[in-house]
C-alpha cells in the first residue's frame, strides 16, 4: 500500500503540475503514511528492526518520502503546494515545509540509530538524507532543525551504531559527506573545529599507539573508519575556504599518521584502499578549491606529502609476492596511486619546476615509483581490468602532456613499451581510453616536430634521447599512424575527431613517414 501511495505521488513529477483536487488527494494519502511512521517506530515495533518485514516496510516508507519530497518539498515545489499543506495542517498539524522536514529528518535519524547491520536500509536512508542536504533551500532549512543540529553535534558510534559495523563502513563516507556539506554551508571555522573534535581524538589515540599495537584489529578498524570519514568530509569541500579549513586541520600535524599507516599496512588492502582513496579525493582540484595565495607554499607542501605516501606504498607493494587475488592485493592500490598522481599533476596548484631547481626529490621519486608500478603490471592485465586500464592510460596522458621529458629520458626498450601500450589503447573499445591515448601520442609527435624536425641547435637532452629512440625503432610513428588510419577509415569510432588530432603531428614528424611500406593498406 505504501508503494502504491508513493507511485501516486510520483505522478506530479511526471505531469509537472497538479490540480487542487490532486493535491487534496495526495494530502489524504500522505497523512496516512506519515501516521504510519509514528506507529512503526514506537511500542513493540522498536524490537522488530531485525525482521525482514519491518525492513521492507521502512524501505517503502523511504520511497514514499523521496517522492513526496521531490513533489512537494523540493526547491522548485516549496511555493506551489498550498492546498496540500492546508489539508495536512488540518489532519496532522503539519502546516509548513519546516515542520514536515522535521518529521522526515526524525525518520532518517531513527533509521540510522536503530538499523545496525541492514546495509540496504542504511544506504537508502542516507540517499534520502543526501537529497535533502544537496538542495540549496532544503539544505538551509535543515540547519534550522534541532534534530539536524543534534546529528552534527553527536555523530559518534554511540549515537549511530552502524558506524561501528564493518559491513556498513562504506556508508560512513556518504554519512560524513552529508554532514560535511551541512557544516560547510555556514563556512564557520569555529563550528568546523567543533565538528572535527571526535576525529582529532581518534588521530591522537592512533598516534600514541605503538607500531605493534597498531597492527591489531581494533586500531586497524579505527584507522579505516577515520579514513572513510575524512574522505566524506573532503568530498564536501567545494570552495577554497572550506578546503582550506580541512587542509589546515590535517597538515602538518596529522599527515605523518597517514605515512606511518601506509608503511605499516602495505600488505592490508582493506587499510591502504581507504587511505589512497582519501588522498585521491584530497588532491582533486574540483571547483578550483585548491587555490592558494601566491605567497603560500601549500601546493608544494601537499605534493611532497603525496609523494611520500605514494613512494612508501609503491616501494613496498612491489616487494610483496603475487597472491591469488592479484587485483585486490596489488592492482587496485596501483591504479588508485596512479589516479592520485594524475590528479596532483593536473591540479594546477604546484609549480613542479621548483623541485628540480632546489634539488628536491619529491617529483623525481614519485615519477620513478609510478613507472616501476606500471611496468610491474603486464599489458594484458592492464587491458583486462577496466579501472586499472582507465587509470593507466589517464596517467600516461598526463605524463606525455606535462612531464614528457621524464618519458623521453627512459631507456629505449621502456620507452617503446610505453608507446606501444598507447597503440594498444587506441584499438580498445572504450572511447575515453582511446581519446587519452590519442592525446598522449599527439603530445609526443608534436614534441618531435617542435624540437627535432623544426628545432634549433643545440638540441635538449630530451630531444637527443627521442632521436635515439626513433633511430632504433624507425617505424614506430608510421605504425601508429597506420593504426589511426585503420580505425578512422574502417571502424565506427565515436571519437573520430579526437583520434584524428595526432595524425597531422605524426605526418609532420618526417616527410618520409607517408612513404613507409607499413602505410600501404
From TrEMBL:
One of its GO terms (molecular function) is nuclear export signal receptor activity. One of its GO terms (biological process) is protein export from nucleus. Belongs to the exportin family. This is Exportin-7/Ran-binding protein 17 TPR repeats domain-containing protein. It is found in: Cytoplasm; Nucleus. Keywords: Cytoplasm, Nucleus, Protein transport, Transport. The lineage of its organism: Eukaryota, Viridiplantae, Streptophyta, Embryophyta, Tracheophyta. One of its GO terms (cellular component) is nuclear pore. InterPro entries: ARM-like, TPR_XPO7/RBP17, XPO4/7-like. The keyword Transport applies. Residues 1-170 form the Exportin-7/Ran-binding protein 17 TPR repeats domain.
